């Protein structure tokens, strides 16, 4: 199957034949590429498949998933296309690699965070969880997209307290919105601009590992 995206895949080095693994799909920010976020999740590659997805629209020397009419105002047709193509890619990768479909995570920064949160709202419990770093949810996603329940979706949302691109108030709006939809929300702010601090990276990495392990434990429990 031909995919809409160029991507970078890392499989756990000690993987066992026939075993399926949790996966982290990473979505980069504007002007970057599929390798940009790998350093943030590299400590998890012993236990997770990591798939970096490159935006398929050129932007300078990098890439993006969609363009903007203005800051915070995506070109709707491009955004809709990106959402459809990313949903199809996640399903394709699940069939192609030894992915546990019950432990699929999407991690995004900036434009990638916007898409990660939007994918959670449209895919629902097809995703196990998301990590959204310094993004927002477009208004038209909330009001015009067909949304699914995220009650069983885990969400780690963080924001820089001094973010000069998306003010921290937007991060708090994200937390209020998702907090009304799922009890599985972790929201944190960090003393940073539009970026990811080492503390932020450690926090979401520990959160991802614990959430994936909790899923395995719960599924293995005797619930009769």
Give a structural overview.
With 224 residues, this protein is α/β, with parallel strands linked by helices. The chain has a single domain, classed as 3-Layer(aba) Sandwich (Rossmann fold), CATH 3.40.50. The chain has 6 helices and 11 strands. It has a 7-stranded mixed sheet, with helices on both faces. A two-stranded antiparallel sheet has the order 4-5.
List the helices and strands and how they pair.
Blueprint: E1 7-10, E2 21-27, H1 38-41, E3 49-53, E4 57-59, E5 62-64, E6 68-70, E7 73-74, H2 76-96, E8 99-109, H3 111-123, E9 129-133, H4 139-144, E10 154-160, H5 168-179, E11 185-190, H6 198-220
Parallel strand pairs: 2-3, 2-8, 8-9, 9-10, 10-11
Antiparallel strand pairs: 1-3, 4-5, 6-7
What is the CATH fold-level name? Rossmann fold
The level 1 CATH classification is Alpha Beta
* Total strands: 11
Morphology? globular
Going across the major beta sheet, what is the strand order? 1-3-2-8-9-10-11
Structural class: alpha/beta
Annotation field: number of helices = 6
Unreliable stretches covering 5 or more consecutive residues: 220-224
Report the CATH architecture: 3-Layer(aba) Sandwich
Largest sheet: 7 strands, mixed
Q: What is Rg?
A: 16 Å
Mean pLDDT: 95
Please outline what is shown here.
The protein is an alpha/beta fold. It is built from six helices and eleven strands.
Could you name the key traits of this structure?
single chain, 224 residues, alpha/beta, Rossmann fold, 7-stranded mixed sheet, two-stranded antiparallel ribbon, 6 helices, 11 strands, 35% helix, disordered C terminus, hydrolase, hydrolase activity, PLipase/COase/thioEstase
């Amino acid at each position: 199957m031909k995919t809409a995206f160029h991507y970078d895949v890392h499989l756990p080095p000690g993987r066992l034949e026939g075993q399926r693994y949790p996966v982290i799909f990473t979505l980069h920010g504007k002007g970057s590429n599929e390798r940009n976020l790998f350093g943030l999740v590299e400590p998890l590659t012993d236990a997770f498949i990591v798939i970096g997805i490159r935006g398929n629209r050129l932007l300078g020397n990098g890439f993006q998933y969609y363009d903007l009419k203005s800051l915070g105002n995506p070109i709707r047709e491009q955004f809709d296309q990106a959402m459809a193509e990313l949903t199809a890619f996640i399903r394709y990768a699940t069939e192609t690699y030894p992915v546990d479909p019950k432990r699929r995570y999407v991690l995004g920064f900036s434009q990638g965070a916007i898409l990660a949160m939007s994918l959670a709202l449209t895919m629902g419990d097809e995703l196990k969880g998301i990590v959204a770093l310094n993004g927002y949810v477009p208004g038209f996603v909330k009001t015009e997209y067909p949304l699914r329940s995220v009650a069983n979706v885990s969400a780690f949302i963080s924001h820089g307290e001094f973010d000069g691109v998306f003010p921290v108030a937007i991060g708090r709006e994200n937390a209020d919105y998702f907090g009304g939809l799922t009890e599985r929300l972790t929201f944190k702010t960090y003393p940073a601009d539009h970026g990811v601090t080492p503390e932020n990276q450690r926090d979401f990495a520990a959160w991802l590992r614990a959430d994936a392990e909790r899923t395995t434990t719960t599924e293995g429990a005797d619930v009769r």
